[in-house]
Amino acid sequence: MFTNLVSAFNEVATTNADLIAYDEMGKTTSFGELKTNADHLAAWLDQQALPDKSPILVFGDHQVEMLMCFMASLKTGHAYIPVSSDSALPRIQSILDTGKPSMVLAIDDFPAANLTLSAPVVDLDQLTKVFATDAPLNEHPVSGDDLAYVLFTSGTTGSPKGVQVSHDNLVTFTNWMLGDEFEIAEKVNYLGQPPYSFDLSNMYLYPALMSASTIKAIPHDVVENFGKLFTALPSLDLNVFVGTPSFADMLMLSPTFNEEHMSNLTHFLFCGEELTVKTAKNLQTRFPHARIFNTYGPTEATVAVSQIEITPEVVENNDRLPVGYAKPGVELSIWDDDKKVEEAGVQGEIVIAGDSVAHGYMNNPEKTAKSFFTIDGQAAYRTGDAGVLDEDGLLHHKGRMDFQIKLHGFRIELDEVRASLEKSPYIKQAVALPKYNKDGKVTHLIGAVIPKEQPEDEAELTKQIRESLKDQIMPYMMPTQFVYRDSFPMSANGKIAVKQMIQEANQ
Ligand code: AMP
Hints:
Helix 1 crosses helix 2 (31-47) and helix 6 (167-177) packs across helix 7 (202-210). The termini are far apart. By secondary structure, this protein is of the alpha/beta class. The longest helix is centred in the N-terminal third of the chain and has 17 residues, at 31-47. Helix 3 links the parallel strand 3 and strand 4 (80-84). The mean pLDDT is 95. Adenosine monophosphate (AMP) binds at residues 199, 271-275, 294, 296, 298-299, 323, 383, 385, 397, 400, 493.
């Protein structure tokens, strides 16, 4: 257990100076080098007379320099705002307007000419010189309730909200990841795939840094290129996988993503979207000795707040997999509007309270007041997720509240329809989409399906699917229309872009 992120990092990096901290497709950086460069940048930042605690925007992909910038910010009391270099211009502008960073550290080319900004932009050339220049550093690191990072949400509608995550939020999360529940050894290899602009990246970044482990980083262009990705993976000697279930589904297209070729992969840590029975079963077949964990949480509660190990028994006993028990320091509850539901087994909105709850949305008191509140003096967050708590505190996620629809008077969870559709042996993956009329009422459901085999006759396949699901799905949940796809669109964070699919179905 550690109490300050920066001092813990300094200690790990000094004790393990020669170990590899970061390996980006063969380009390696030791802990010593990472710390030295971060220290040099921190000393330089202090000479720039930036306003105290003002946030610093860090722009790039998976380069090790991103980590140097994060650490230098934290060492000088600044929160950082990680922004992916493939972000659309309006998103970057909105982040600049809301986040008001005092400086932009740009590892990739920053499109400043097409943006309105007042902060200075420091490019990689200049940063490289700074990294190489020694200067005395008087650390005054973030601590306690100081913000560590501000992460902008990736909603497909409206402007992004900047979630303010404090130093202590991040410390309690990282200590939990490195504790008894997950039993991940020190000095191991983590897969570094989720981008730093997605909070799931913190599930490998800080646990790896604090345990003298190596991050095997995969840049965006490799993730996008199946050939390169599938060739690279078995050679990374991974021990810990961190990612979305969709990313694991993609990797399972590769014949070498299995225990035979990746025998040291002992842990799969999932978060960010539903881990389906199908994905879990496939994974258990491919990696019979690995441990699979489902974790749940929104960015607003610092990456994840519940976990459960998905054993073959858990898969056998559940139609939809549970998302786990609360992390210590966190209390999960179910609410019906503004009232806490006391009985177990009742569905309502998941509310998270405790030391993982972030400090609201940056410069957005209205949205903050809508979702953040306190319960008996503890910070709390309304997730907008539907869920049920068992007698023994096990949480079941039932989809987004805004993915609950009414059809002919029935309340339907789109995710439940999806889960039912995926029971058909003809279906590889499915998404249920509501079709609205011009008054905003749902008229029927569309089943968007990736079939196991491409059909010669779609009408015939639809008939077979209906037949195969006869006893598996409530009749009112059966889609009246089926559309067949090769793949589903993905969001920047590697989740199925359901909102986009709903929009497209209703154009
Ligand atoms: P984000 O803030 O991008 O991490 O998204 C958080 C949302 O992802 C949550 O509010 C849930 O709707 C969804 N989510 C996260 N983890 C899980 C999980 N294990 N199962 C189902 N949905 C999840």
